[in-house]
């Protein structure tokens, strides 16, 4: 029964790998081609491109990690391999989480309307705000790597102390729980920031709609449409972000016993599914990317008809 479920989860993970690679690859390719043609790229496209590239690397990392652990277990549990995996995962996951937060913050500062002095200062210095946020994220990345390095030696000693392959598999999950916990722990700050931008954007839209109705203007004016479009993108992004964030908390909880192995696989599949679905949300929320995506989908149908 467990073997059958493992195969099912493997199929799901393979589909998620394919969908994530195609979606993120599309975003990166379209933005890079547009960059070459126009010789310039907007701030939001820079963030989207960087996020897409980090997602592609993360998707491949998860895919290769799964196959190497199955096909080459002896290589997988060497000290150098584990060190490389944890460092690479920490850096890529950190980039993924913070770039998602910066993108949500960009939409919020671009669309929302507040008369608060701090908000106006951040809005009119948007590029500097993004740059400072990136620098802050690098500081958190440094702390994350330091904490991981301090606990790495203890973890690797416990893993390599066991001779049998089965014991290594169990001890890998059992003794590295703290290392698994560091990523959600350091992801909590950007997660709260994304949640705050989401709530503030809702409040901004509510105030804007009240002003529109009070002034007896057309209900769906340009600003209202922009608010709703950005809000829809941020809502789905925060929802997927929440699934991704909570999945790793559950993975930490379920890694303490072999009885919770299926829960571990289920949550891992769910978290990667949220990660793979997010690029399509970003494509739908971006007018230029959405237009190119629909053009690519409709062109084969048009060719068959003609």
UniProtKB/TrEMBL annotation:
<feature type="transmembrane region" description="Helical">
    <location>
        <begin position="130"/>
        <end position="152"/>
    </location>
</feature>
<feature type="transmembrane region" description="Helical">
    <location>
        <begin position="261"/>
        <end position="283"/>
    </location>
</feature>
<keyword id="KW-1133">Transmembrane helix</keyword>
<feature type="transmembrane region" description="Helical">
    <location>
        <begin position="48"/>
        <end position="72"/>
    </location>
</feature>
<feature type="transmembrane region" description="Helical">
    <location>
        <begin position="230"/>
        <end position="249"/>
    </location>
</feature>
<keyword id="KW-0675">Receptor</keyword>
<keyword id="KW-0919">Taste</keyword>
<dbReference type="Pfam" id="PF05296">
    <property type="entry name" value="TAS2R"/>
</dbReference>
<comment type="similarity">
    <text>Belongs to the G-protein coupled receptor T2R family.</text>
</comment>
<keyword id="KW-0297">G-protein coupled receptor</keyword>
<keyword id="KW-0807">Transducer</keyword>
<feature type="transmembrane region" description="Helical">
    <location>
        <begin position="84"/>
        <end position="109"/>
    </location>
</feature>
<keyword id="KW-0716">Sensory transduction</keyword>
<dbReference type="InterPro" id="IPR007960">
    <property type="entry name" value="TAS2R"/>
</dbReference>
<feature type="transmembrane region" description="Helical">
    <location>
        <begin position="12"/>
        <end position="36"/>
    </location>
</feature>
<protein>
    <recommendedName>
        <fullName>Taste receptor type 2</fullName>
    </recommendedName>
</protein>
<keyword id="KW-0472">Membrane</keyword>
<keyword id="KW-0812">Transmembrane</keyword>
<feature type="transmembrane region" description="Helical">
    <location>
        <begin position="188"/>
        <end position="209"/>
    </location>
</feature>
């Amino acid at each position: 029964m467990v073997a059958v479920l493992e195969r099912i989860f493997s199929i799901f993970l393979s589909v998620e790998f394919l969908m994530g690679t195609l979606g993120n690859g599309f975003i990166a390719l379209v933005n890079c081609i547009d960059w070459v043609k126009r010789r310039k790229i907007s701030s939001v496209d820079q963030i989207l491109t960087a996020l897409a590239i980090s997602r592609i690397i993360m998707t491949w990392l998860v895919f290769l990690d799964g196959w190497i652990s199955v096909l080459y277990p002896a290589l997988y549990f060497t000290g150098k391999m584990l060190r490389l995996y944890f460092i690479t995962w920490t850096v890529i996951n950190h980039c993924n989480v913070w770039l998602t937060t910066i993108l949500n913050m960009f939409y919020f500062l671009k669309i929302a309307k507040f008369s608060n002095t701090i908000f106006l200062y951040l809005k009119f210095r948007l590029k500097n705000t993004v740059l400072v946020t990136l620098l802050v994220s690098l500081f958190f990345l440094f702390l994350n790597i330091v904490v991981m390095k301090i606990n790495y030696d203890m973890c690797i000693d416990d893993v390599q102390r066991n001779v049998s392959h089965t014991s290594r598999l169990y001890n890998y999950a059992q003794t590295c729980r703290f290392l698994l916990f560091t990523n959600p722990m350091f992801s909590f700050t950007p997660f709260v920031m994304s949640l705050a931008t989401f709530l503030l954007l809702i409040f901004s839209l509510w105030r804007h709609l009240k002003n529109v109705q009070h002034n007896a203007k057309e209900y769906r004016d340009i600003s209202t449409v922009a608010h709703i479009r950005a809000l829809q993108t941020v809502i789905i992004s925060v929802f997927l972000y929440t699934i991704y964030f909570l999945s790793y908390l559950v993975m930490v909880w379920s890694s303490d016993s072999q009885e919770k192995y299926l829960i571990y696989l289920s949550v891992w599949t769910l978290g990667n599914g949220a990660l793979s679905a997010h690029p399509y949300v970003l494509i739908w929320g971006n007018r230029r990317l959405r237009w190119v995506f629909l053009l690519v989908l409709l062109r084969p149908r048009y060719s068959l008809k003609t």
